[in-house]
Amino acid sequence: MFVVTVEFVARPEHAAAFTRRVHQQAQDSLAREPDCRVFDVCIDCARPERIFLYEVYSDENAFRVHLESGHFKAFDTEVAAWVAAKNVATFNRLE
The domain containing residue 53 runs over which residues? Predict the structure, then answer.
């Protein structure tokens, strides 16, 4: 399995809208991508503008498919101005 973690810091004035939109993105990914196994959205209890994603794909190619999907590209374009910082990391999960 291929794991992707993403930490976003949303601009405070866009935090609520970003959270709603990233939640929709998670639902879209799970519904439309059979190789997207997990897409968790976590909100920092003390700093709601800090959002952490935990995503699991069947393999690295499935993640590349995710990045090329129309729903991801639409999300990425829509939220770009709402994001102050973004950090992405990838891992291979031991089975």
Answer: 2-85
